[in-house]
Amino acid sequence: MNVMVDRSERPSGPSPQPKRNQGWPRWGVWLVMGLVATALILPGLVSSESADEVAYDLFLDRVAAGELADVLVDNQTGRITFIDDAGATFETTGPLELSIDDRRLLADSGAAVRFETPQPGFLQTWLPLLLPVSLIILFFWWINRRAQGQMSGMMSIGRSRAKTYSTEQPGTTFDDVAGYDGVKQEIREVVDFLKDTEKFAEIGARVPKGVLLVGPPGTGKTLIARAVAGEAEVPFLSVTGSDFMEMFVGVGASRVRDLFESARKMGRAIIFIDEVDSVGRKRGAGLGGGHDEREQTLNQMLSEMDGFEGSEGIVMIAATNRPDILDPALLRPGRFDRQVVVPLPELDDRRQILDVHVKGKRIHDDVELDLVARGTPGMSGADLANLVNEAALIAVRSGDDAIRADHFEAARDRAIMGQKRESMAMSDEEKELTAYHEAGHALCAALLPTADPLHKVTIIPSGMALGVTMQLPAEDRHTYRSDYLQERLVILLGGRMAEELVFGVTSTGAGNDLVQATEMTRKMVREWGMSERVGPMAWGSQGQVFLGDDLMSTRDYSDETAHLIDSEVQRILTDQEARCRQLLTEERNALDLIARSLLEHETISGEEVGRLVSAAARPGGATDPSSVDSSAVDSAPVNPEPSDETPFTVDPTLGDHSTVE
Q: Which helix (H) or strand (E) segment is 614 a member of?
């Protein structure tokens, strides 16, 4: 499984676009408001002359004494400013209308008396009128701006939303992608074609117009496309399938036209459509009939791809994790005529991906990345990145200064089995039942020759399970033999059979085991031809209803065949249950040792299970797990090489091989 890992700091972003004229800047409005406030407030705060304040009675006494030379009276405010014979200026506040006696006193004092009525300034006169008028004008201006924005939005609704990446912006390259040599080779052909078209033209080779990246989520399809953007010295237009969709019919088709027109103006360019299944789904399928907007968008895309000329230099790259629902017209030669599978990473790829993700992190010497890679089958690049980050978080919570091997172990357990529920209260009876249940799984896994190596057993509740028996394959499996699957059934039934042998009853803890065993057996009989009575015949499961393909169709086998399939499924399960019963009955002493060790330690390793099995197999074998000397007892021979048998291609839904109750 090939996983791409981004080691660049930032992806290449969209090229800067020129800013539109957006009217007055915000600081200009605040500047005008500040100037107006200053003009109103400053004259009242700053006086032209400084004068001492005196009481009005003292002012009258000095007037009567004839000590004043000049008097100025403000008729509007009653403010009086006067100058005495010594030239000192004073101020006081009197009544707005002086009495007759006060006026006579001022007239007889011999001072120069003046009465003034100040005229209002320009702002004081017009501001009360200008302010409401200005507010009305600003309101209508704001309404007009909003209307223009809405109209511009309506006019640009058919514009493509693709982001343009230019060669000036650094981005991800193929060196940042761990593994995926085959995928990079196929994609590199596209890059080489765009860089050196003449080399291909000399031989007469024609590079595919469209490349479809297919793979599970998290495998790095988008990262590969970003690497193409970094490698190709041509413009790169990136858009997602959902960007074409809108509530108005015809908008998506308009955006497709605009996208291809923009690419043609650039000459040679790469168009990348992520999640193309959202717009390229089969037409006329599903319970709800057709979807006008989606189908028109797809039709326009098909038309534009047909319009490509070999000399145009435009290549399309699309990514999806659901190729089965794409319209056949989209996948025919001349459109997306090359499909590049981006699978889950293999063992070597996972090792390279871990090397990338541990950079910049403090790793302890006891961490073996080879062992971590072997213990993560079926994980994508995104899963591995999350695993390393989760291990770092656990190290921080534990107060350690480096990420240790047990932190990776805890992070993997949490990813596979869920968060441990150590605070969950279980009765002694439930603990003993769970211990024997997991001991049954572990004993079968340790003794059966083709089973995957046993990694560890625990009765600590994790996620929705009360206990877990974990097996880790020594290497990645791509095909599964019939003997391996039969022994897998024995392991799945081991927990239920251990409960029945020891306690004489069964519990609901085996519910998930029975579901897995029944589903696997049904595939063995119905799809993989592993039943002699049914023979080399295969009937696949029903298709997805929403596609509409199998909505009105019936199953492709008769009732007699259905009865035969059910009887064969029952027979295989019954035979493997009898085999499991015989195995556990013969190794009852080892079953008790493993269960007691689980009750004592709660978690034991696969090596410890092997030692307990070896100790129980000796003449007069041990009955107490504490009496087993780990240094003196060799591990039990577990999982020898299987016999030769023609392998078959397995359905990837088998997944990993951990048993969870």
A: helix 606-617
pLDDT tens-digit series, residues 617-643: 766 555 666 555 544 444 444 443 333
Q: For residue 492, which of 431, 451, 432 has the smallest C-alpha distance?
A: 451
Low-confidence ranges of the chain (pLDDT < 50): 1-22, 47-48, 153-158, 161, 167-170, 287-290, 311, 542-553, 630-661
610-624 burial, b if ≥16 CB within 10 A, otherwise e?
bbbbbbbeeeeebee
Please write the tens of the pLDDT for every residue from 236-261: 787 877 767 655 556 667 777 777 77
295, 321, 341 — which closes off a domain?
Answer: 341
- Residue 648, sorted as left (phi over 0), alpha (psi -120 to 50) or beta, turns out to be beta
Instruction: Give the domain CATH number at 73.
Output: 3.30.720.210
CA Rg value for the chain: 42
447 within 8 A of 616, measured Cβ to Cβ: no
Residue 50 φ/ψ, nearest 5 degrees: -100, 130
In terms of domains, do 147 and 168 share one? no
Which pTM was predicted? Answer: 0.60
Structure tokens at 647: 């392998």
438 assigned to active site: yes
Instruction: Count how many domains the chain has.
Output: 5
Q: Active-site residue among 438, 487, 587, 661? A: 438
Residues 361 and 402 in one domain: yes
Which CATH number fits the domain that encloses residue 618? 1.20.58.760
